[in-house]
Write a structure and sequence with these properties.
Layout lengths: L1 H23 L6 H12 L8
Length: 50
């Protein structure tokens, strides 16, 4: 039951993000942008580029 709740919340989050991207007419993130954000998060949130 908890699994279904987590899946439901994840699904709603994904739908909300898609709607936000569509409403802003913003291009989706590229793989490089995603990699950069993930690496920054793993490094403690430092978003400075080298």
């Amino acid at each position: 039951m908890i699994t279904y709740a987590i899946l439901g919340i994840t699904f709603l989050y994904a739908v909300i993000q898609i709607i936000l991207y569509a409403s802003r007419q913003r291009k989706p993130l590229t793989r490089e942008d995603i990699d950069e954000r993930l690496l920054a998060a793993l490094n403690g949130g430092d978003t400075a580029r080298e």
